[in-house]
């Protein structure tokens, strides 16, 4: 089995870099290669110009925070944080100073003497982070460390992690399958599938300008409509939808798509046509789903394709009923052509 296939990537110093993809795509394998827990069958791993491919894990200036945290239950919080420093042979005074600084960084000073099995999930996660940061590694690897937390705590810890990375200046390489988590914290994201990196970019590039159908479909909600390219130049393509409608849509930089393609449109980038306004396409309302800040209108197009339009939460209340015919328009610059 090929776990990673021709992966080549550069990660900047002091960057919060996220490996994002579904289970089995190779993101954890890539993290383990960087940590030294696995060896590549070919290629090299370099850290600031130094080839570390053959170095064992304990000799790499890299630390890992695991999903299970792997804390020592018989030790106190302070002893857990200082463990790595003791293994490095640091003096008791230095261990004490660094441990105090780490406790303050993760706001656990009051719990320094408590055993880790007496802590909540969020507190254990902070201890694991502090223990990994204490030896001042050049790179911190995080293997889905928030997966076991409840939703509200997970969102809080996302902001804390980003703040910690900015404060320490250490390069964070974060593994997750949660798209919202990646968009919230990352400076850049690498989207992976079947052992390959499909696209690397900042959150806005990944969300607004996907270069592959998988990336568009995996990141957030999106509408995919089949189309045929009629003409493409200067970053814009004219395409014909299945019902014969001609529309314009943006293309990836340097791309000149031809033949059968798809166009991708985010639900929030679609607009319901008002009375008397012309619409790009028309569909029949099948369902309306309210989820607080927004509502999703699920339309069925004459071609049999589905289309979701997102509107403010209370906008559609009492205004539309299933079976209604609704016109929809969209802007070419907010639409992407995907092969």
List the helices and strands and how they pair.
Blueprint: E1 16-20, H1 27-35, E2 46-47, E3 50-51, E4 62-65, H2 77-87, H3 92-105, H4 121-133, E5 139-143, H5 151-168, E6 171-176, H6 179-185, E7 188-193, E8 196-201, H7 203-208, H8 213-218, E9 223-233, E10 236-241, E11 246-250, E12 260-265, E13 270-272, E14 281-290, E15 294-300, E16 306-312, E17 325-330, E18 335-338
Helix pairs in contact: 2-3, 2-4, 3-4
Protein name: Spermidine/putrescine import ATP-binding protein PotA
Family: Belongs to the ABC transporter superfamily. Spermidine/putrescine importer (TC 3.A.1.11.1) family.
EC number: 7.6.2.11
Key structural traits:
single chain, Rossmann fold, OB fold (Dihydrolipoamide Acetyltransferase, E2P), 2 domains, 6-stranded mixed β-sheet, 5-stranded antiparallel β-sheet, 8 helices, 18 strands, 30% strand, elongated
What's the arrangement of strands in the largest beta sheet?
Answer: 4-5-6-1-7-8
Euclidean distance between termini CA atoms: 27 Å
Rg, alpha carbons: 24 Å
Mean pLDDT: 91
Shape: elongated
Number of DSSP E strands: 18
CATH architectural name of the largest domain: 3-Layer(aba) Sandwich
N to C succession of SSEs: EHEEEHHHEHEHEEHHEEEEEEEEEE
Which structural category fits the helices and strands? alpha+beta
The CATH first-level class of the largest domain comes to Alpha Beta
Helical stretch tally: 8
pLDDT below 50 for ≥5 consecutive residues: which ranges? none
Look at the structure and name the CATH superfamily of the largest domain.
Answer: P-loop containing nucleotide triphosphate hydrolases
| Beta-strand proportion | 25-35%
